[in-house]
């Protein structure tokens, strides 16, 4: 019994890959060669070596060596990729390198700033630094207790003023104003207020309080009003965007059940958008916590602890940092050290508020589970 002859396997081959039955041509593989994963590391090491060599030979500084190394890497890597992987992959690598370079350039000032503040401010931190004021302190010693309390009080009053106004204004714009002329004017004014310099807000608060208390007035509540002017447009914009993200189907379903509009807003719309609203408010607080110019004009500065926002001057961390560095006293070393320590505390407060915004937003976010 004869064994049947097996025909060649032609599956997956097109007409261009076969001439006749039983004949098979060679075809180009679909996958192109690729560089190994360690190729960027190898090129980076070579670029650093070239930069270091030029630094030694030409007596260049470290910045020039870093620039040369970056240039060598950005040229050598795409050229090698173009030879091995082709033009498309080389262009992709060029785009990737450009984005990473932009990221590094953006992070360099931030990292440098944090390093300077932490290295100069951390040695100053102590229990005395947080629990003592600068009353009757000359030279070494003292602390920022009065400035911390002033910052917290003024920021709390600014929040109490700006949040109700901003949230209610956003509710009117989204739920009631629609395309009315008043809504368009409010939107225009909010856009204008978003771009005003902070010192203008301080001048506005000072001019307002001069009408009631006379020239030379200084009080913490005036600083709160100035900060509220800066916070209101941020709160309005963030709340407005969050309310627009609430699906109209939720409103229509509530109206279909006979629920009045005000109750729909308070029980359906606001709870749904609460995460974004709270996040926007917290970020607005963090934005004004470090303002200096308005507080210099209307809140002033003092070495004593003042917990009454409606009487006398009130110290704040930004103003304390300004005066401690610009007018450090004799000897200047101790005043400048206190300025660095206060700057570190202020950055920690702002960073904490940003982290709190993320945590609160996650907590109030609508639950998507069953």
UniProtKB/TrEMBL annotation:
InterPro entries named in the record: MetI-like (IPR000515), MetI-like_sf (IPR035906), Phosphate_PstA (IPR005672), Phosphate_transprt_permease (IPR051408)
Localization terms from the record: Cell membrane
Main subcellular localisation: membrane
TM segment ranges: 38-58, 64-83, 95-118, 144-174, 186-213, 219-236, 268-286, 339-357
One CC-aspect GO term: plasma membrane
CDD domains registered for this protein in UniProt: TM_PBP2
UniProt superkingdom: Bacteria
Membrane topology term: Multi-pass membrane protein
Keywords, in A-Z order: Cell membrane, Membrane, Phosphate transport, Transmembrane, Transmembrane helix, Transport
Cited Pfam families: BPD_transp_1
Keyword Amino-acid biosynthesis attached: no
Keyword match Membrane: yes
Single GO molecular function: phosphate transmembrane transporter activity
Domain ABC transmembrane type-1: 148-357
Gene Ontology biological process terms from the UniProt entry: phosphate ion transmembrane transport
Family matches, as PANTHER family: PHOSPHATE TRANSPORT SYSTEM PERMEASE PROTEIN PSTA
Family: Belongs to the binding-protein-dependent transport system permease family. CysTW subfamily.
Alphabetized NCBIfam families for the sequence: 3a0107s02c (TIGR00974)
Function: Part of the binding-protein-dependent transport system for phosphate; probably responsible for the translocation of the substrate across the membrane.
Protein name: Phosphate transport system permease protein PstA
UniProt organism field: Nocardioides daphniae
The encoding gene: pstA
């Amino acid at each position: 019994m004869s064994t049947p002859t097996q025909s060649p396997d032609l599956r997956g081959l097109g007409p261009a890959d076969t001439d006749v039955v039983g004949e098979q041509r060679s075809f180009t593989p679909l996958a192109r060669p690729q560089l190994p994963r360690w190729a960027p590391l190898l090129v980076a090491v070579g670029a650093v070596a070239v930069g270091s060599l030029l630094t030694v030979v030409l007596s260049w500084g470290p910045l020039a060596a870093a620039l040369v190394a970056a240039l060598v890497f950005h040229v050598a890597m795409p050229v090698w990729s173009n030879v091995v992987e082709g033009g498309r992959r080389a262009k992709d690598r060029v785009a990737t390198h450009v984005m990473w370079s932009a990221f590094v350039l953006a992070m360099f000032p931030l990292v440098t700033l944090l390093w300077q503040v932490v290295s100069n401010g951390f040695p100053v931190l102590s229990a005395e630094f947080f629990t003592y004021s600068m009353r009757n302190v000359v030279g070494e010693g003292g602390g920022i207790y009065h400035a911390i309390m002033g910052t917290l009080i003024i920021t709390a009053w600014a929040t109490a003023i700006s949040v109700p106004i901003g949230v209610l204004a956003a509710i009117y714009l989204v739920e009631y104003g629609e395309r009315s002329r008043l809504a368009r004017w409010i939107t225009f004014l909010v856009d204008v207020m978003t771009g005003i310099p902070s010192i203008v807000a301080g001048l506005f608060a000072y001019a307002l309080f001069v009408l009631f208390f006379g020239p030379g007035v200084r009080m913490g509540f005036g600083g709160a009003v100035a900060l509220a002017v800066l916070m209101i447009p941020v709160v309005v914009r963030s709340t407005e965007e969050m309310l627009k993200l609430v699906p109209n189907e939720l409103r229509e379903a509530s109206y279909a059940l006979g629920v009045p509009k005000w109750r729909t807003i308070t029980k359906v719309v606001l709870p749904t958008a609460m995460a974004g609203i709270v996040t926007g408010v917290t970020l607005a607080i963090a934005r004004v916590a470090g303002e200096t110019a308005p507080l210099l004009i209307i809140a002033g500065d003092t070495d004593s602890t003042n917990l009454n926002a409606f009487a006398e001057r009130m110290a704040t961390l930004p103003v304390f940092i300004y005066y401690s560095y610009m007018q450090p006293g004799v000897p200047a070393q101790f005043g400048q050290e206190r300025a660095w320590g206060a700057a570190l505390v202020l950055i920690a407060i702002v960073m904490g508020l940003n982290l709190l915004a993320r945590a609160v937003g996650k907590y109030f976010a609508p639950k998507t589970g069953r």
